[in-house]
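User: Predict the full complex structure for these chains.
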Amino acid sequence: QQQVKQSPQSLIVQKGGISIINCAYENTAFDYFPWYQQFPGKGPALLIAIRPDVSEKKEGRFTISFNKSAKQFSLHIMDSQPGDSATYFCAASIEGGATNKLIFGTGTLLAVQP
Amino acid sequence: KAGVTQTPRYLIKTRGQQVTLSCSPISGHRSVSWYQQTPGQGLQFLFEYFSETQRNKGNFPGRFSGRQFSNSRSEMNVSTLELGDSALYLCASRFGQGVSSGANVLTFGAGSRLTVL
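Assistant: Here is the predicted structure of the two-chain assembly.
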C-alpha cells in the first residue's frame, strides 16, 4: 500500500513533442505529490508538486494532472526539448509533505531526440 | 545560496568495513533527510532529522544510523558493510517541518557514491 507505481520505465520523444509519465498509488493518506527531475551525476531536483484538492497544476511547460478517484497522477512535458532528457521520479507523502519521507516511483528515463 | 553539500562524493570500501557520510544542509535549513538510491530499488527513505532528533526512520537494518548536530549538519554511518550497500546516498534538506510549499520544499544534494568491494 506504500508503493507508487510509475510508467513507462523509459520514453523517447521527438523535440517539440509531448512527454507523458504516469503514476498510480494505493494509500489514500497520501496528500502531497511532487515530481523530481534528475540529471546524471546530480541529485533529484523538485520540478513541480500538487495536492489532491486540485486536478491540474501548470508551471511553464510542465503540467501535473491529478485524478483523485482513480488514484493516479501524471506529468506532461509540452514542447519537449533535448535539455529535458533526464530521469523523472514521481513521489508521494502524507501530511501535506510535512514529513520528509517521500515514497518514490521507480523512475522514467526520458530521451528527447533533436 | 550554497546548496546541500555532501562529502565525500565518491568512496570505495570493502565488505565488513564501516563508512561515515557527511551532509551540510542549505544555510538556515533545520530538517535533514537521507535516501539510498540504487538501480534495483530506486530511491528509498533512510531517516529524517529535525533539531538533532530523529523524526522518522525507513525500513533499513540497524547497521544504518545517523545523527544531526546542533548546527543542522548531519552524518550517516553504515557499519559492517555488505556488497548490497553499494549505492548513491543522498542527503536532502528543507527549512523546517510543516507542509511543503514555497521555500519549504526538500532540496537534494548530489550524493555520495559508495562502492563496496
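The CA atoms of residues 33 and 48 of chain B lie 4 Å apart.
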